[in-house]
Every structure is written in C-alpha cells, then in structure tokens.
Amino acid sequence: MATYAQPIGEQQSVVKRSPELNSPQTKLIIGALIVTMALAIFLLVTQHIVQPLLLIIGVGLGYTLFHARFGFTSAFRRLASVGNGQSLRAHMLMLAVACALFAPILATGFAFFGGEASGLVSPVGVSLLVGAFLFGIGMQLGGGCASGTLYAVGGGRSVMFITLLFFIIGTTIGAAHFDFWVEDMPSAEPFSLATSTGLGYGGALIVSLAIFGLIAWLTKVIERKKNPPKEAEKPSASGWKRILRGSWPLFAAAIVLAVLNALTLLTSESPWGVTYAFTLWGSQVADSLGFDVASWGFWQGDEAALEASIFADTTTVLNFGVILGAFLASAAGGLFKFTKIKPGNAAASVIGGLLMGYGARLAFGCNIGAYFSGIASFSAHGYIWGIMALGGTFLALYLRPLFGLSVPKSKDSFC
C-alpha cells in the first residue's frame, strides 16, 4: 500500500491510498471482446440459445472473480493459518444471497426456457469425505481451487496452466475409479434441508441463514483471539472506473456471484459447476487414446455426452466464459502478464492438480459444484464438503514448505 505525505506548515498529514492500476491494455481488451463475440455467435448458430447466454454469464463470473480476487482456497488458508475470517464471511454473504434466490426457483422449478430447475443435492458417504479432504490439500498445493484455477489462467498466472492440465487428468482418473468409491463404499442417500426434513424451502432458508450467521460470528471470535494481520490492499481504480477496472470489495463480489449463480440455474436448469467439464475433456481424450471410457461408472446413462461436441456442455461454456472474463478484467486493469514458473511451484501444481481433480470427482464437485452450489441447493453434502476441505487445508499448511511455498499471512492475491 502506497503512502503519500503532504506538508502542512511544520506537520505532515499522511494520506493512504490503494496501489494504482496500470493503464488498460487496449489491444488485449479488443482481442478478448472479438473472441468472446465470435464464440457467442458460433454457439448461437451451432447450439441452443442457452449456450451463448451461459457464455456471457461465465464472462461475468470471471470478471467478478478477478476484480475481487475472490478466493476459496485463500479464504480457507487465511482462516487456518492466521485466523483471518474476512474472506470466509464474504462466503457466508454469498451463500445467504444465493440461498434466498435459489429457494423460490427450486420450490417452483421455474426456468427461463421451459424446463425444470433443480439443485445439486448429492450423497453423503466415504467418497465425499475422502474426496473433499483430498481437494482441500490439492487446492493449497496447486495454488487455486476450481474457479481460482480458471481465473488465474485468464489472468496469465503461468503455473496455473500446469495445475489445470493435471486437474483434468486427476478428474479423469477419478471418473475411471468412480464405481469403487461411489458404488462400493458406504454411502447415505442425498439429504436436502428442504425436501428431506419437511421444512420446505422457506424453513430450510431460515435454518441456512442461521448457520451462515453462526459461522460469521465464529470467525469474529477467532479473529479477536488471534488478532490476524489485515489483507493487503489490491491495485484499484477510483470512482466509477472501479467498476470496470477493479478492484471490487469482497462483499460486493459475493452478491454478484450469488446473482450470477441464480441466473445460471434459471438459464441451464442447474447451478454453476466447473469440474464436470474437466472430466468430459479428459474422458474424450482418453477415449480417443483407446480407453473404454463408456464402461466407466461415471458415464453410465450419460454416454451421449462423450460423443457430442464439448460446446454442447453447459459447464464447458461457463468455464470458457470465466477464463475470458478474467482475461478481460486483468487487461482492463493493465495487469495481464505471464509469470515465471519456479520448479517448486510446478511440482506442487502437478500434485495439487491431481489431488483436486481426483477429489472433486469423488466428492461430487469442487468448491463451486459441491460447496457453493451444493449449499445454495440446501444439500447437506455441501456443508460436509466445506468441513473436510478445511481439514485438508490444515494438513496442507505443513506440506506447502516442502515445495518452497509459504504459509501466507493473508497476502495472497489469487485464491
């Protein structure tokens, strides 16, 4: 954070300002807009109207994630390492708004294009416990969660390309092992706070808001005991330019992300997810290499997706949108550049990507599909995912130094 001093008589008045952004990277912005428009037209011509709409929503998600540096990985790490709960409180606001928006949608099943909207409610079992724990370790080694990997790639963080590649490989291996973990291991039926309890969506919303309030209060208690350092200032524009160039307050981004997730539900009939697309990409490659992918338990009943274009997949389109949105946001702030890769970071990214991919497939999703969208769908598995991922985070704090990674004191920019 820059500090400027102005003399007034014999005294000085200290004015604190956020670090300033660089000039907008105009050529990159124009290029990204052209690519986005071309892809939207291609989707409109070759796919359903839903796909270009989801691309625009994805751009909004990526733009928001980058401008706020909205972290899931960093939120867990900051709480576990130094007791800083600011980012986790932003999570609670995001979840509260999302639940309030999801409740009437799920209660009525209303969707924009005549289908029936449904949430992501998944089983609770050994696969969830193991998968979420592995994901928690992986995201701390890999340097980002599922959404964080995408927007870091869009922002030019070079090592995250390695994380993304091995994320895809890990989730493909997880799909191959799906029967063992999901079918053979003990598991309970999916449990919804709304439909499995008799509370209905109104009652489930009240219970959910109480839980979020309790968690936010607990983070305050932890902070009073640990007195953690505050998060570092991010480069920021001033006035109305801040909307386009960043940075955004965490709590503003939390609301925007919740609204965009609700729009995703209304548009695609399912909430925001990320890792299904990774599994699809990896499985199609594996299929082309001669693996009998159609026989894997994960693809039973969904074999047609393996034969279809990836552009027919809603999560794929959203993922492309997130990358493009983050690229636009970084270029608007004059921040896009490829970064150097250190050997330790590369090794951590390989292991972290594999663990995240494998864990996400076992746990029925990642920080988005299981944690964010799962909890917003009133699924118990979303809460358990968060607890187990936090447990993996605690273990990862001891593993990070082995790869030359610091255990930060809330100074990370990327999640």
Automatic annotation (TrEMBL):
Alphabetized InterPro entries for the sequence: Sulf_transp_TsuA/YedE
Xref: Pfam families: Sulf_transp
Superkingdom: Bacteria
Keywords: Cell inner membrane, Cell membrane, Membrane, Transmembrane, Transmembrane helix, Transport
Keyword Cell inner membrane: yes
Keyword Transport: yes
Compartments it resides in: Cell inner membrane
Gene Ontology CC terms, in alphabetical order: plasma membrane
Sequence intervals crossing the membrane: 28-47, 53-72, 93-114, 126-152, 159-178, 198-222, 243-266, 317-336, 348-372, 378-399
Main location: membrane
Membrane topology note: Multi-pass membrane protein
Protein family: Belongs to the TsuA/YedE (TC 9.B.102) family.
Entry protein name: Sulphur transport domain-containing protein
Naturally occurring in which organism (per UniProt): Geomicrobium halophilum
Taxonomic lineage: Bacteria, Bacillati, Bacillota, Bacilli, Bacillales
